[in-house]
Amino acid sequence: MNALTDRLVGTPVLPQPYVLFLGDVTFAGFAKTAFGLRDWAPDKCVGEIRLAGATVTTGLEAVTAAEARARGARALLIGVANPGGVIPAIWRASLVEALEAGLDLIAGMHMRLSDIPEVAAAAQRLGRQLIDVRVPPTNIPIANGRKRSGKRLLTVGTDCALGKKYTALALADAFGARGLDVDFRATGQTGIMIAGGGVPMDAVISDFEAGAAEMLSPDAAASHWDVIEGQGAITHPAYAAVSLGLLHGSQPDIFVVCHEPGRTEMIGTAGYQLTSIEEIVELTTLLGRRTNPAIRCAGFSFNTSAMSAAEAAELMASESRRLGLPVADPVRGGPAFDALVDSCLA
Amino acid sequence: MNALTDRLVGTPVLPQPYVLFLGDVTFAGFAKTAFGLRDWAPDKCVGEIRLAGATVTTGLEAVTAAEARARGARALLIGVANPGGVIPAIWRASLVEALEAGLDLIAGMHMRLSDIPEVAAAAQRLGRQLIDVRVPPTNIPIANGRKRSGKRLLTVGTDCALGKKYTALALADAFGARGLDVDFRATGQTGIMIAGGGVPMDAVISDFEAGAAEMLSPDAAASHWDVIEGQGAITHPAYAAVSLGLLHGSQPDIFVVCHEPGRTEMIGTAGYQLTSIEEIVELTTLLGRRTNPAIRCAGFSFNTSAMSAAEAAELMASESRRLGLPVADPVRGGPAFDALVDSCLA
User: Fold this and answer.
1) Cβ of A209 and B290 within 8 Å?
2) What are the CB-based long-range contacts (under 8 Å, 24+) for A90-95?
3) In chain B, which segments carry CATH 3.40.50.300?
4) Which CATH class is domain B4-132?
5) Closest CB to B240 among A202, A235, A244
6) What does CATH list as the number for B151-345?
7) ipTM surpassing 0.90
8) Which of A3, A40, A282, B240 has the fewest C-beta atoms lying within 10 Å of its C-beta?
9) Whole-model pTM?
């Protein structure tokens, strides 16, 4: 998976390895980005920096900016978010200290690093980069629909925020473990930080959405796999434009539908019922055929984190019988997940 | 249709009436915007300004900037485009003269008015506006999918550039002629200039695409019609994201499919065959149902400009029988177009 940055022509390549910055975080939910980095890119993380008052930890060793630099870190990565996306004043001295220690800064919050005067001034004085992973590249072309070489898998979903990134990472890992040549292609902030590159698809101007997806997974060797992180849902009243542009531009050979059993309404909408799994399969096939007539569904990834192991196993087995394809929870792994991987590679 | 600007909360409202600027244009195809304004908003155009060497005219009276201002013009509107979207140096003195005469400037070219130093300086000195209709509003919300009051019609297409704007304008006119309360909702540059407001949907960030469409056609009286200009095509490999966001956010009750008989390949793609009319009806209904379960196709608008009157009439009659709904060319009008309007209002 680490070859990604070398292939992503035109997309930002992040300076690595990182030191993870946790600020003064006291709620684990706000540190999701840091946990994602720890879980999926441990070889790219030299430690964590916490301020006084922080109660959350990734379990990585606590270091200073200077110690991180001495361990080879090239950037401080802000691994926490708060609801407003603001960078609090009490973080700022640490950010300047990191710049002075020789680190670039990477963030994906609503507030831009360059909008903090003392941070911007220090970066300019020291010749360091302030990188916002929410900013798409400026050289995205209009899509042309030309069939590209290599194989592609896209994770899609019955809604937002139910495991499309996790599933793509787990499948890319499993493909790699079977000796295949594979790249994880990131389309959201945390994914981009993990991969070290990618395109924040939701921040791309609509006219260029499919073009950005084409750029994200360029021509590759015939046996090479791109495993592409999905976004939104094709039936989400707010985000379907993102999903369709990504689907068309990715021209996937295979898709895996991600779903959270028990979720009944779509996130952020006025009471919209979740679309059924079968309808997502039907619509994704119908629309995806436009740029890849051979598109097929390989199976289903369930987020069963709210269920007991026994409940999850029973549900996945019965749903697999009903749907006629493997159903697995990549967090639980096991034979069900192996069967899903088999189906992808069949 | 003129009530549009009053309803479009948050979208730019252009200063009107205009004087149309033709520069030194010698190819009528480059003056499409000016012709569109002349044809669809004659009451908003006080005349035209041409430079020496121009051989194209809208037929409106040639005036100076000062004369235009004396006739009530509030803005000079650049009604020509060239392939590069550049504002030539020889236009600039005229643009400054217009600012000095008391006019704002409106453009939709690739090059920004504010990037021309002498124009930017004059506008600042005089307190005039430089308006780029390609720039979307900054206050677009994420869509919520809530059902809005009032009725909506969206024009969709089998491809780009085959009459979706023209059809929407003609239908809005026809609805008005029947005494209905109607607004044309513009989604592209020329449409926005004609309407005096709107949202350039292809320039909106993907995450906000459906939200922009919701903003464009707000709650209205139960009997009120919004006739919304479509963009792209739901099966266009480059632009489908724009089309789907617009479809979801518009939540149309009715759609009319625009088509150009004889066109076989989609514009700008690597040999993609045009999608069939029936498939566009099927996909638009399937996807549009998500935000408006009552969506229906009311008929078809054919661009028959390349055909003789007899050929066009014969084709439209046979296609109408085959498809089971009215087929009309709004440019030709006549009983076929009346039947299409009847079907929309049925």
Assistant:
1) no
2) A90/A23, A90/A24, A90/A51, A91/A21, A91/A23, A91/A24, A91/A51, A92/A116, A92/A118, A92/A119, A94/A21, A94/A23, A94/A49, A94/A51, A94/A65, A95/A21, A95/A119
3) 151-345
4) alpha beta
5) A244
6) 3.40.50.300
7) yes
8) A3
9) 0.94
